Amino acid sequence: MSTYTLLNAGRIVAGPGSVANITEIVAEIGAEKVLIITDKGVAGAGLIDKPKALLESAGVAVAVIDNTPPEPDVDQVNAIVAAARLHAPQLVVGIGGGSAMDVAKVAAVLLANDVSLRDLLNKAPIASRGVPTLMIPTTAGTGSEATPNSIVLVPEDELKVGIVSPRLMPDVVILDPQLTLGLPPAITASTGMDALCHAIECYTSKKGNPFSEMLALKAITLISRSIRKAFAQGDDLEARHDMLLGAMYGGMCIATSSTTAVHALAYPLGGKYRIPHGISNAILLPFVMRFNVVGNEGKFRDVAIAMGIDVAGRSNNEAAAALIEALFTLNRDLQIPADLKRWKITEADLDALVDGAAKVTRLLDNNPRPMSVADIRSIYAQLM
Ligand SMILES: NC(=O)c1ccc[n+]([C@@H]2O[C@H](COP(=O)([O-])OP(=O)(O)OC[C@H]3O[C@@H](n4cnc5c(N)ncnc54)[C@H](O)[C@@H]3O)[C@@H](O)[C@H]2O)c1
Ligand SMILES: [Fe+2]
């Protein structure tokens, strides 16, 4: 292990009803013109009404861009940034899942820096922090509110690309589980599994460190004990609270460690077949971990314990095997597809998928067990 760093959002305000603190937060920042970036689903669920009304009654001018598409591509992000520029906001508020928050984060940077989105995708540095940002997650999944990442789809490469910079860290986060009570079961399941992937991948990553270990094990425990309840009884506030905290801890893990081959192999599935991020990761998780266990049994025993699996009297090998079985069962219980059949992906698509995944060296390099091109091919083949 070498030097390790944990980036944090400037301030985190959490708990049921905490969205009501928005007025005080915005007053402290001193913003009189605020732009909310969200999507139609979130706006349609009424989730921006309260923060918007609170701000307006405090005399703050609020503009709203609510057309963020799911998992947006370069042109779509550029269109939102162009619209955002017209409002000249003093604060950008991202309300939604990873799609809305990632756009809000990168828009805030683009509004204040003389650099294009294309430049950033080509790894241009970001000179200065952008317009201040406030992130309010409404899914318990990506943890984008706690990461220095924004993910953008690059259509010509059929790949999703991560822009990573400390300048993307949000200034303030509001973590209010009441905003997630109405999240539909299927999205609860897929986004929750994305969060579990972040925690397990970051814990077992070559970039794992004392910060990520603490956060990942807690995230795994919170998510494992509450994901089924949040899926089946969406109005259970305690389960929603666990999920939202677990997801943010997962994001914090990304900010100090890194995801690994699950996310690397998911990127081409999102980029080429538009399989939602949470679903592609959830499908891959047990298969990739079955590969990763070999040589890393002790670490996977820790994950099994964090998931509440009884490992007493079992060898590390047996504990790790029980964990893999538990991941398959969890996907089944959450009605997540077990393979890629429904997307009609066949052997003929293998070469392109393997090529796409092999390009994601940013994540593959951190996989605890080196993954060759033949290994990647074998894992995709198992999913067909
Ligand atoms: N920045 C990061 O560190 C990071 C990490 C992982 C993933 N991502 C990215 O995040 C994106 C995915 O984000 P996501 O999984 O949160 O999905 P999403 O933001 O695309 O949202 C999925 C759907 O859920 C709806 N929704 C959200 N909250 C709701 C609520 N409370 N009630 C009802 N409907 C609601 C939205 O309208 C949308 O239709 C991908 O682009 C992925 O690559 C980013
Ligand atoms: Fe993710």
Helix and strand topology:
Elements (H helix, E strand, L loop, with lengths): L10 E4 L7 H8 L3 E5 L2 H5 L4 H9 L3 E5 L8 H14 L3 E6 L1 H15 L4 H5 L11 E5 L11 E6 L4 E6 L7 E4 L9 H20 L5 H23 L4 H20 L4 H13 L3 H17 L3 H10 L9 H18 L16 H9 L2 H4 L8 H10 L2
Parallel strand pairs: 1-8, 2-3, 2-4, 4-5, 5-8
Antiparallel strand pairs: 6-7
Helix pairs in contact: 4-5, 7-8, 7-9, 7-11, 8-9, 10-11, 10-14, 11-13, 12-13, 14-16
The protein binds nicotinamide-adenine-dinucleotide (NAD) and fe (ii) ion.
What proportion of the residues form beta strands (DSSP E)?
5-15%
Radius of gyration using CA atoms only: 20 Å
At the first level of CATH, what is the class of the largest domain? Mainly Alpha
How many beta-strand elements?
8
Helical fraction: 40-55%
Q: Quick one: biggest sheet? A: 6 strands, parallel
> How many separate domains?
2
The name of the CATH superfamily of the largest domain reads: Dehydroquinate synthase-like - alpha domain
Task: Give a description of the structure.
With about 375 residues, the chain is an alpha/beta fold. The chain folds into 2 domains: about 10-180, Rossmann fold (3-Layer(aba) Sandwich), CATH 3.40.50.1970; about 185-380, Dehydroquinate synthase-like - alpha domain (Dehydroquinate synthase-like, alpha domain). Helix content is about 50%, strand content about 10%. The protein has 16 helices and 8 strands. It has a 6-stranded parallel sheet, sandwiched between helices. The protein is globular and about 60 Å long. The site of nicotinamide-adenine-dinucleotide has 34 residues, from helix 2, helix 5, strand 6, helix 7 and helix 9.
